Amino acid sequence: MYDLKIVGGTVVDGSGGQRFDGDVAVRDGRVVAVGECPEPAARTLDARGALVTPGWVDIHTHYDGQVSWDEELAPSSIHGVTTVAMGNCGVGFAPVEPHDRQRLVELMEGVEDIPGSALSEGIRWGWRSFPEYMEALDRMPHAIDFVCQVPHDALRVFVMGERALATESATEEDVARMREVLREALLAGAAGFSTGRSDNHRSARGEATPASEAAGRELAGIAAAFVGLRHGVLQAVSDFDILTGDERFHPEFDLLEEMVAASGGHAMSVSTMQRDHSPEQWRWILERAERCRARVRRALPGRRPRHRRDAPGSRRRSTRSWASRATRRSATCRSRSACGGCATPSSRRA
Fold it and tell me: How many domains does the chain have?
């Protein structure tokens, strides 16, 4: 007997296949059948006229502050999102020293246009390190799942303090310490690391973000924290020095590839959009990503494709397949070789 059966809906299972009319059955919190579900159920939900889909995975959100006080994470939770990735664009609220809290609030306010008053009044500060931040969030109930990325700006401020300015280069000791703090967070369960290189991103005071001009040496040195780990993604938002000129695109993209190579080949997500100053830039991002994928295929001729389907109707399959479909325009490299890297563009506004 099923606990729940959703009947009469149009199923879009996220595998890339055609939609179809069918039922979905749930037992013990897991999807156990899709299509024909012959057993009776304790509860039946009539979905005629509606789409039945796996939960959406939103890979680019900024709930880093809201998640500390709001268990619903609206509006995502009311739009069918069941998992969000936070800590994008290099901005967030951990790690942090108590005296730098307001600085991080002003960064988030300026970069993402989230009212500083709401953040200052709402955030339930109770952490210093990134593992402590995740533990604080785990103590709260939440309606949907979330994953946390370590933001470069917060990491730079935590390690460099008042020297964490866009115009200030990190020393070798600074880079080593940032790598150490990131590694600690990854081992504690952080999903990845994000950096922001957009000239449009400014603090509430109009200042450039701390990591916006970080040198390749710093980016690669921090990314080395991923080496040897089986999980973790890199995330970057960049306008590739668009106001300077299109000739800056490839040197800037090279920096991102160097990060991936230094990480041991972990996947990278790069936000993309059509920009007025360079309307073809999004195509260049996709082209560079595809070239990276081609290098990986040549380097790993015996690599087996990942199967999309597990047991029919299993929850694991649905979630994973939906993530694949949600990023169907992406180009992803997960090679452990220093092949030159990859990028996974997201069509989400940074």
Answer: 2
What would the DSSP string read from start to end of 156-209? HHHHHGGG--TTSPPPHHHHHHHHHHHHHHHHHT--EEEEEE-TT-B-TTSPBP
Q: Are residues 196 and 159 in the same domain?
A: yes
What tokens does 228 get?
A: 């040897």
Dump pLDDT digits (tens) for 255-277. Answer: 999 999 999 989 999 988 888 88
Q: Which amino acid is at 74?
A: A
Q: Are 119 and 95 in contact (CB under 8 A)?
A: no
Do 23 and 168 fall into the same domain? Answer: no
pLDDT tens for 45-60 read 999 999 999 989 999 9
Looking at residue 12, which CATH number applies to its domain? 2.30.40.10
β-sheet bridge partners, residue 35: 23
Tell whether 101 and 165 lie within a shared domain.
yes
Q: Do residues 132 and 116 share a domain? A: yes
Same domain as 67, residue 109: yes
Distance CA 95, CA 86 (A): 14
Which residue range(s) make up the domain with 215?
Answer: 55-299+307-346
In terms of domains, do 139 and 193 share one?
yes
DSSP notation for 200-265: T-B-TTSPBPTTTT--HHHHHHHHGGGTT-S--EEEEEE-TTTTT-GGGHHHHHHHHHHHHHHTTS
**Strand duo 41-46 + 344-346: pairing:** unpaired
In this prediction the pTM is: 0.80
Q: Output the domain CATH number for residue 225.
A: 3.20.20.140
User: Does residue 273 share a domain with residue 214?
Assistant: yes
Band (pLDDT 50/70/90 cuts) for residue 330 is very low
Is the CB of residue 74 less than 8 Å from the CB of residue 34? no
Query: Using an 8 Å Cβ cutoff, are 191 and 97 in contact?
Result: no
Q: Is the dihedral of CA 106, 111, 116, 122 positive or negative?
A: negative
The tokens describing 215, both together, are: 């040198």
pLDDT averaged over the chain? 85
